[in-house]
Prior knowledge:
- It contains 3 helices and 14 strands.
- The chain has helices spanning about 25-30, 45-50, 115-120, and strands at about 30-35, 60-65, 70, 75-80, 80-85, 85-90, 90-95, 100, 105-110, 125-130, 130-135, 140-145, 150-155, 170.
- The strands form 4 sheets. Strands 10-9-2-1-14 form a 5-stranded mixed β-sheet. Strands 11-7-4-12-13 form a 5-stranded antiparallel β-sheet. Strands 3-8 form a two-stranded antiparallel ribbon.
Amino acid sequence: MQDRSGHWSHWSDPILFIATTATASELTKSFRISEIHYDSTDLSQAEVRAGFSHADDFEFIELVNRSEKTLDLTGAEFVQAPLNSNPQGIQFLFAEGLITELAAGERILIVEDVEAFHFRYGDNLPIAGQWSGNLSNDGEQLTLLGDRLPIQQFAYSDDWYPVTDGDGPSLELIDTNNTDLAS
């Protein structure tokens, strides 16, 4: 390259490389969404008296480490992805969470509202933190990345299993080792 004064830069010898697909890390191979609790049941009288005003405050997502090793979660994140020019999903950086490692076979939660979650479900469950954005009660796309590579990206729908649409039960993945969400 020649600069404006006419001097040529001293480049090193060329290096030949071939771009390939990124290698999956243990995080991308083993960290999975196992449960989505959206469109929570209505508030109880005790929850209203405690000052909660939205059933959505009790929503959560559970994730599992399906490997035999402890996972470093600092490279994991939920990102909002645009769909028809609208952001879909939630945002959460595990690197900024309360829990950044997950032992083999263990599960972890991220929640809409930590205080609401503790009130309804107790405070002895492993919560990494609180996401920004929200879970649509009608369904939407969720995007989980690990080391900036896709781990899971799918759109859930309240039509899948109507009982999960505000009647109490969560949408749970039966087999976290099966990566084909259509089956």
